[in-house]
């Protein structure tokens, strides 16, 4: 992805079901839980680099000592800080009068620690400050009312929840949505945990995967009813583990893919202080399903009527870009996305195969590029087996009309991002020139008569593409540059955790405004006044995908570029075919939001655009 997006956070939860001596004897580790938590965080560090946090809870704490240890950092190296703190943790007893208590409770002894929570943060909203790092803590004199909470979430109605909470006699000390959710759950902890979670989240609009624990040793994980945010778990006789990505669990615990399941939307996985595991339906909290230790075929029990009316809509950007591709399903889907672009790419290239050079923008587009290459080789082999005198070759194979000897696609890495490139130049013009050199190019692979095809996984704002990528690719001297996106055009804002909440920053929306011409403002105002949930859909429908894409191409082409430019996007139909989920969250492409808050955000974003207000839309 050429446009840097801040997005999903990561969660990690490890609950030990045996005492510490079991892991010491079997694995030779005196810190089994801490080591596994560290591995889960390290394997998900792509999901958060603005902050990190961890909490470790002791089993059966005694009065006079804190039941947990908490570590947080928002430095330039937050994960390193937290991992060091986990490794070096010691008891906080320094006074002589506490020595007897230390010996009696042995809080720091690692065989007494049972619950391990971890979090990595991307600051899509809120300050990049340690106060915003998870886990959040609600302190209480009763252990069962003490709560630690971390999550990957975004709420569209946090201000409303805040005002409602404050108006009922509570005094919130922060507006951070993580703090708010923590307090709302803690408020109900005099009831069973499932009821407290159900009550706290009943009016929440947004997306979440939450993990937490109470001071008395009950741990839990829950996911929003639409399953927008990802969450996975594994249960065996020794451990319960939850993480944002499946491969993190597989790597940390060396388990096969089938041992890792998706957290069921609208449910809460609850682990009792004794290690018993249950699933509770938060839409019908009194319905609890007991989970056996092996959990190999574990699925949620029958959903309530309310949840049956909610469609499961997992975020498709997880599959396209955010999640690591060492998840086998995601790997296959990304390859399929690359392969699906072959007809459009060859049509846009409009050149013999021998005059096309294929490349990609590292690193997130690499797997889709593999799929593109595989499809090209299949296409080449198919065409080479046909008679060269065939009168009718399909339009998608125009680029293959050459001798059989050249039916080998040329490919390579022509552009590489210099991750260590930094500049402190203040002059704007000089900075623009330096900005281009964030990317290095490989000279000598592309000829002056070549068409250069470069695959990206998505184009969001287009600033990097216009100001850095295309100018640097143009230096290679190609006749034509084809930029292919394995995702469709991003036409709508997101409000569930991805940092693209304003319309004016989206190149696809700016293209629509240009296509609407002089009447654009009037048409947008009238659309906003309409009662339609999605006021922009009728305006987008005025133009074909080809017209829209042509205008995006014009917007992305910098002045003075020598090469011709063409931009092609994945179609929504192909996206749905390639991603193997039964249902799909594609609102940023289609405007089909899973919650009412999403449509509210869309209306706010359109109003902000018309009023030239650059504020976030939620």
Per DSSP, the total helix count is: 22
Q: Can you list the strand order of the major beta sheet?
A: 3-2-4-1-10-9-11
Largest sheet: 7 strands, antiparallel
Radius of gyration over all CA atoms, rounded: 27 Å
- Regions with little confidence, pLDDT below 50 for 5+ residues: 91-98, 101-109, 294-309, 389-397, 400-406, 421-426
Percentage of residues in strands: 15-25%
Report helical residue fraction: 25-40%
Instruction: Please tell me the overall pLDDT.
Output: 86
Structural class comes to alpha+beta
Distance between the termini: 24 Å
According to DSSP, the number of beta strands is 21
Looking at the structure, what is the overall shape? globular
Describe the model.
The strands form four sheets. The protein has a seven-stranded antiparallel β-sheet, with helices on one face. Strands 5-6-7-8-12-13-14 form a seven-stranded antiparallel β-sheet. A five-stranded parallel β-sheet has the order 16-15-19-20-21, sandwiched between helices. 49% of the residues are buried. It is globular. The protein is an alpha+beta fold. 34% of the residues lie in helices and 19% in strands. Helix 15 links the parallel strand 19 and strand 20.
Essential attributes:
618 residues, alpha+beta, 7-stranded antiparallel sheet
